[in-house]
Design brief:
Elements (H helix, E strand, L loop, with lengths): L1 H22 L7 H7 L9 H6 L11 H7 L5 H20 L4 E5 L3 H8 L10 E6 L5 H15 L1
Parallel strand pairs: 1-2
Length: about 150
């Protein structure tokens, strides 16, 4: 009997915890997040790499965020594909009228919000904060590639 009560209480506790977890979810619909995660299905840079490494699915690596993670691989051919894709995505965003510039550092989230208040300014650049304090080397490298292409 005690076992049944314990199971029943555990069962209800699990559902209560799950329902609370869902209510605490924050969805970021900002233009910066939309552009950072926007998937470009028409990318063809590095398609041969995805055949060479079948565990990598080319359809997954179609956004600035996901291609940045390709730079974390030690294989230079994968890193070159990441660079090519990042340049391709940045170019497409620029042609769409959405040039992006990746920023990081202390208070970069606040800086992003402030700089993106007026997207109709002279440069129309959308700032994207990818890290508040420290970030892995590959994210910094991705930011350098994207920013250089945007300013080029």
């Amino acid at each position: 009997m005690i076992r049944k009560i314990f199971l029943l209480l555990s069962f209800f506790s699990f559902f209560l915890a799950e329902s609370q977890k869902d209510s605490n979810t924050v969805v970021d619909n900002s233009v910066s997040t939309q552009l950072y995660t926007k998937c470009f299905q028409n990318l063809n840079q590095g398609n041969e790499i995805f055949k060479k490494y079948p565990t990598l699915d080319s359809s997954m690596f179609c956004s600035l965020l996901s291609c940045s993670f390709l730079l974390s691989y030690k294989e230079t051919d994968i890193q070159m594909t990441a660079e090519q894709r990042l340049i391709g995505i940045t170019t497409q965003l620029f042609k769409e009228g959405n040039p992006v510039y990746l920023i990081s550092g202390l208070e970069s989230g606040s800086t992003e919000k402030k700089k993106n208040e007026n997207l109709e300014d002279d440069n129309h650049i959308v700032y994207i904060s990818y890290a508040e304090c420290t970030s892995p080397f590959f994210l910094k490298r991705a930011a350098d590639i994207v920013n250089q292409q945007t300013l080029h």
